[in-house]
Amino acid sequence: MLLREKFMNACVFTACVGLALGIAAPKAFASDPLPGDDIPPPINVNIGLFYNQFNDAGSTAGVTGSAYSQNTHISTDILVARYIRTFTLAGTEAGVQGYIPYVNFLGNQEAGISDIPSPLAAYGYPNFGPGRANLSSSSGFGQPNLSVFDFVINKPETGLSLVLAPWIQLPIGDFNKNVNLTPAQDTWVYEMEAGLHLPLIGTPSVPNLALELWGEAYAFSGNNNSAYVTPEASANNIPGIYTLVHAQDPLVPDSNPLAVSTSTPASFHEQPSEEIHAYLSYEVAPSMGAFISPGFYQSFGGKQTYTLRNGEKLDSGNRTDETQLRLSVQTFVTPTTQITLMGQYDVAAQGGPLYRTIELRIAHFF
User: How far, in Å, are 85, 149, 188, 190, 229 from residue 167 at the CA level?
Assistant: First the structure.
């Protein structure tokens, strides 16, 4: 094998590991409306909210939708502070709001890989098989989000309402381009959000059933000061043939790590994405604002690509393509304090972790 061919094969192998894993860049932290957020709050009120979201993934999904669970541990604790102020605007209820997340990566982050490609596959040698990728990470603040909103439909006697809310996410935060997992991606994010509260049975004064539908559309600027980061990769069981091959060709790995972590300067771009949320909310005690809400979440699009300095384009394999089931309970524990507890379960994802999530939200009206 020519020396030039050896180097080409080594580079292709390293890139394939990164592309197969498909989580080199994080997905944007969405506004993620919860049940009841489409019900108009009182006018001229301040609302302070605190969120604590714990996410744990023991499985990563491939770019084709199949999951691989072995050697996966991706865990985060996300804290969010949010502020809302309502007022009257042109005869309708409106307001302003903003939030900022803090993302803390818990322990060592590791993702399973179903089949690590071989640099010699074209010559008939087997792949390295199942393995893992040790993911570098850095905790810190995500990007701040600002929004205005307007309840363009508000019928308190029936419970029918429609809220529109454009958001903007500022390209500031603790972005680290040289790690696999970072809390910010240093891009402008533009979001349009709409939420419909549609009563089905009953009225707000008695136990009632309502359908809550949310839709979001996102557009992203590029990040010209990014990097394409591949993780350190190791195989669970390296085929014995590579001990012999390595003796003849030292560039072919025969021991772990098969590939070390690399960071290549690049520009990052994410295509537009969309999300839908649907909750079936049953309000069991209107005097306490107490209800239970099973829900469904689906995201689309968001293909993430890198352009290297030589003009080469690489598809990360990552998409905002996620299917999730949810269950939420909510109630006022005092006249001014509301508590929401939600469980989230990823059914499918493309090129990313399958998360199991518990989220607590405390809202105080003043």
Answer: 15, 9, 11, 6, 29
Residues 321, 325, 327, CA angle at the centre, nearest 5°? 145
Contact 213, 198 (CB under 8 A): yes
pTM of the shown model: 0.90
Render pLDDT for 207-219 as a digit per residue (tens, 0 to 9). Answer: 999 999 999 999 9
**Residues 122, 114: Cα–Cα separation, whole Å:** 19
For domain 26-107+139-228+264-365, give the CATH number: 2.40.160.40
Kindly give, in sequence order, each residue whose CB lies less than 8 Å from that of residue 153, ignoring residues fewer than 6 positions away: 160, 161, 162
How far is residue 36's CA from residue 99's CA, in Å, rounded to a whole number? 18
C-beta separation of 146 from 170 below 8 A: yes
The domain locations on the chain are: 26-107+139-228+264-365
Supply 308's token pair.
Answer: 């290297």
C-alpha 77/C-alpha 35 separation (Å) is 22
Report the alpha-carbon distance of residue 228 to residue 25 in Å, rounded: 9
Query: Which tokens hold the place of 253?
Result: 């790995």
pLDDT digits (tens, 9 = 90+) for 171-194: 999 999 999 999 999 999 999 999
